[in-house]
Amino acid sequence: QHYYITNNLRMAFDRTLKVYDPLKAGSIDGTDKIPHDKAINRAMNANYLPRNCAKSSRTLFVGRLSCTTDIESLEKCFRKYGRISNCRVVQDPVTLESRRYGFVTFSKIEDTDYAREQTNNVKLDNSVLFVDYENSHNMKGWVPRRLGGGFGGDKKSGQLRFGGRDRPFKAPILLTSDRTITSNYDTKHSSCRNERHQKHRKRSNNRESGDEKRSKHRSRDNHVRTGHNKNSRSEKT
């Protein structure tokens, strides 16, 4: 099946999720109807309830940390953007090694917004940071990565999640169930095909009309020859 999208729909297309949907997040353009991996099924069936946190609107998620980044270095990186009330790096409970992500909470919401814009893609301890809002309290329907949801992911795992700041949706190609051609490219080529068909019809019609003319000329010539032969025979007799 081949479907097309108009430029107007492409312009109005929303590249990020406002309400979390695991099925949409598992699709590169947010149009999948069937989950393509088991983790999406697990996320769709998850009953995730985040902890109550009054500071969630002032908390940033910081991902892609270096293994050597600790709380002090993380706080030092964000301190210049506002007063920090809490900072932590998530560790594995068994090995106590960093899971390479953490959270930074500011005292003011405006400082949170400013830090989000300024620190994304900043390098810390030779690692480029990914910074976004903490989604468990700020996005309705949120399901964390450990339950099959989340955003981003590793290409090797085959469980990429789209619709977030890291990997926004790409404009969909499959939108309608009919085969109506609406894009400029296909409209242009369909008109060219129609012109070629019309030219072919004209040539065939001209060829048919030429054949008719030639057949008329042949019949007339044959009639003249037969008449001439009859006259010559009558003269001889």
Give your account of this protein's structure:
With 237 residues, the protein is α+β, with helices and mostly antiparallel strands. The protein is 39% helix and 13% strand. The strands form two sheets. The chain has a four-stranded antiparallel beta sheet with strand order 2-3-1-6, with helices on one face. The chain is elongated, with a radius of gyration of 36 Å. The termini are far apart. Mean pLDDT is 79; it is low at 1-11 and 174-186.
Q: CA-to-CA gap between the ends?
A: 81 Å
Helix amount: 25-40%
Q: Name the average pLDDT.
A: 79
Uncertain segments: 1-11, 174-186
Topology:
Blueprint: H1 7-12, H2 22-25, H3 38-44, E1 59-63, H4 71-78, E2 84-91, E3 98-106, H5 109-119, E4 123-124, E5 127-128, E6 130-133, H6 135-138, H7 184-236
Antiparallel strand pairs: 1-3, 1-6, 2-3, 4-5
Which key terms come to mind for this protein?
237 residues, alpha+beta, 4-stranded antiparallel sheet, two-stranded antiparallel sheet, 7 helices, 39% helix, elongated, disordered N terminus
Can you describe this structure in just a few lines?
With about 240 residues, the chain is of the alpha+beta class.
